[in-house]
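Example 5.3 — STAS/SEC14 domain-containing protein
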Amino acid sequence: MIEKLPRSEGNSIGYEATDELSEDEYAEILADVEAAIDEYGSAKLLLDLSGVSDSYAEFDAYEEDFGFYLRHGEDMDCYAVVGDDSVLEWGTELSDRVTETDIEFFDAEDLDDAWEYVEEQ
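Solution (predicted structure tokens):
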């Protein structure tokens, strides 16, 4: 299940996932980001995955994510990933190296720092 975070404003968008993201939920997040890109020219995303154990998304959601970055990678100012899983941290660091988007990982207890990062980019 996903919930849009109340601190979301303008092109700074935050979501919290409390369970593995379905393809439809991930598509909902990406549609919100795409709408921000259309309105503001760019978007900033915070995704709090600290309540998710194991894999954070269905396999089809990964395909959706890849296609989104092919279309809009240059339109993303930044992407903050919040979690408490070392594999997620590693994946975030790898994604940062292979995409044009500035992607940072934050530990679960550093959610406020992640928001500051997103809002200041």
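Remark. The longest strand covers residues 76-83.
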